[in-house]
């Protein structure tokens, strides 16, 4: 182990200890997460500086600094399926009307799809304003290799239909889905939880002597799971410090500079969509500032991990405890939002790529027919992404061929993909939580 590697590890341990000392009642989790974010960025730059930006020299240090982040993400993934299952069972058992569940699900999905369509329009607008185009873009060896891989994966999504996607949502083996064996396992567990809860609800009505035991048992299990989530959430600052250290220390500055126009345009589109979320919240009678202040730790984690699925436990817990969203709505919006109607990955990204690629095959990207078709295909494919997994890349693999456009552009942007994906994931999670908060307002208070 080199002296610089040892120095980096010692400093990182000192930063972890400093975060531990910050754990005081007067220091909110949001403030701790923000401090951890700044420390991670600064320490990542420090590692770049002392190692001259050589990732191979930085890697031995990252092997150890990644440890808290890897453990934290693993714990969150561990709790996803039990949390979703128990929350859905408990939520349905407490329902007075089964029809309310359909209203909740319809509202959540409707808002997710609507915001994804708006995100597509925002992506088209920003790409046009920046004058971005795929013409003249040339990839290196890594991009060419990536293009070859994408060519082999394209057939996987080319023949995907809405009917097939719906069938993929239905649980065939709940024990396999509880192990996250399929890309649609989360939705499958949600559906099983609803059906199991419905059976419990109907049994309670048919045999009242079981009602108290069923309700009490589900409430007890839910309380235990939520307490476990709270324990894991207390580790968030350490996870964020570790994850942000890796993100910054492993970034390639030259790749970012080469494609800075696309990076800036992407983050501008993401920022606009956050404003759209705020407007929708305001129109539904919610306070946007209060909303974003409360979900800040969740967005930070989504940004650092680039995983909407791993964020589900924090998402549900924050909606229930901070935003006061009913458990049934929180669980549905967090679960569906991680797989359907992702504003960043399924909305902005494929729209931007389609507009950039259109001129290469002689298509006018500003033609009304092209824009309308693109938005409709993006709305439909936002369900299809859940059927195959892979986030923004697979969304692009669905949308571009459907529009008659080449997929090589996806490979050319591989160098900056992680950087942009952080912002897209945070937007995805914001969209899911926005749908939950607005649905809560509509269902519980009757806002039209």
Offer a quick outline of the entry.
One of its GO terms (cellular component) is plasma membrane. This protein is an all-alpha fold.
Record keyword descriptors for this entry:
79% helix; globular; 20 helices; 448 residues; Proton glutamate symport protein
Describe the structure.
- The protein has helices at 3-21, 29-50, 55-93, 99-130, 141-158, 162-169, 174-177, 185-206, 211-233, 236-249, 253-258, 260-283, 288-305, 312-321, 327-337, 343-357, 368-388, 391-402, 408-412, 417-445.
- It is mainly alpha-helical and 448 residues long.
- The protein starts with a helix and ends with a helix.
- The model is unreliable at 138-144 (pLDDT under 50).
- The CATH topology corresponds to Proton glutamate symport protein
Query: Are there runs of 5+ residues with pLDDT below 50, and where?
Result: 138-144
**Structure class:** mainly alpha
The portion of residues assigned to helices is over 70%
Task: Specify the number of helices.
Answer: 20
Terminal Cα span: 63 Å
The CATH architecture would be: Orthogonal Bundle
Counted up, domains total 1
In percent terms, what proportion of residues is strand?
under 5%
Outline the biggest β-sheet: none
Instruction: Compute the number of strand runs.
Output: 0
Q: What Rg, in angstroms, do the CA atoms define?
A: 22 Å
What do the pLDDT scores average to?
Answer: 84
Q: Would you state the CATH class?
A: Mainly Alpha
Q: Quick one: overall form?
A: globular
Order of helices and strands: HHHHHHHHHHHHHHHHHHHH
Protein name: L-cystine transporter tcyP
GO cellular component, one term: plasma membrane
Pfam family, one: SDF
Transmembrane segments: 6-22, 34-51, 71-93, 105-132, 185-203, 224-247, 259-283, 370-388, 394-414
